[in-house]
Amino acid sequence: MHLDADVTRFKLKSHLVPNAIGDKAYLQAACVSPWRTIMISDDARDIVSSKMILNLNEPSKIDDTSWIKPMKYVGVWWEMHVGKSTWDYAGSQNAQNALVKDLKPTGKHGATTANTKRYIDFAAKHGFDGVLVEGWNVGWEDWFGNWKEDVFDFVTPYPDFNIAEISAYAKSKGVKMIMHSETSGSVANFERHLDRSLQNMMNYDYPAVKTGYVGRIIPRGEFHDGQTMVNHFNFVARRAADYKVMVNSHESSRPTGYNRTYPNYIAAEAARGTEFNAWSNGNPPMHETILPFTRLLGGPMDYTPGIFEIKMSHYDATKKEQVHTTLAKQLALYVTMYSPLQMAADLPENYEKYPDAFQFIKDVAADWDESKYIEAEPGDYLTVVRKTKGKESWFLGAITDENPRKTEIKLDFLTPNKKYKAIIYQDGITADWQKNPINYEITF
Question: Is 349 a catalytic residue?
Answer without folding.
Answer: no
